[in-house]
Amino acid sequence: xxxxxxxxxxxxxxxxxxxxxxxxxxxxxxxxxxxxxxxxxxxxxxxxxxxxxxxxxxxxxxxxxxxxxxxxxxxxxxxxxxxxxxxxxxxxxxxxxxxxxxxxxxxxxxxxxxxxxxxxxxxxxxxxxxxxxxxxxxxxxxxxxxxxxxxxxxxxxxxxxxxxxxxxxxxxxxxxxxxxxxxxxxxxxxxxxxxxxxxxxxxxxxxxxxxxxxxxxxxxxxxxxxxxxxxxxxxxxxxxxxxxxxxxxxxxxxxxxxxxxxxxxxxxxxxxxxxxxxxxxxxxx
Length: 285
Prior knowledge:
Blueprint: H1 6-9, H2 21-34, E1 41-47, H3 54-62, E2 70-76, H4 83-90, E3 94-96, H5 102-112, E4 117-122, E5 125-126, H6 131-139, E6 144-149, E7 152-153, H7 161-178, E8 192-195, H8 196-202, H9 212-220, E9 225-229, E10 237-238, H10 248-260
Parallel strand pairs: 1-2, 1-4, 2-3, 6-9, 7-10
Antiparallel strand pairs: 4-8, 5-10, 6-8
């Protein structure tokens, strides 16, 4: 059965030189047509060593069917491969952020964004055509500060469609229950958008290795609620960065063990978190 992202999969995992020029030319032309000199939305693609995935992500963004003026910009986060060459080849405006972490990369994007709304984009993810419009239906509401969506994994030789369906069914049910009291714990950077004025008041944390997305969502709660989108037409598809080399079953068991510790926490609101030592970025003196 064909999927909306099949054509992006045709270049996913290929190096810079393996991708045909006609594909680069198509992406470049489509992205250029979407760039506005007075954007309402800033779509920020962060990438660290994403040579084999970035082009497929940008191809999906070039097919967005959004009805808002937008800019699409990139951040090259100290990559050692040909990630930067892809930005150059496609002609996408981008910035180099040498301090390495998703927090620094997203903050770099925030500093250069010209729009009113900021959409976080991860370079290993495909975004469906209606993603922006459906997210904006929630984000543009006056009582909302930020919005997040659910996401799916694409099937491959190690992860089959039915197994993925069951895995995501259980995961989504847990996230749905959790979001009532602890919505910030459900936020993932690849499916996260927020109002820029509010984010600039609190900034994005750069002193932690992971969790900058949920931490920002928590900081934005005083300015409006964290909204969630359950529409499958707004569900991006990604690879297995959060699962790694594990099987779905191994990942499921690991998540059950982690979430099972102090499970009652999801039923109580919280406005502050204590950082674990292993998640802090050590400053270089």
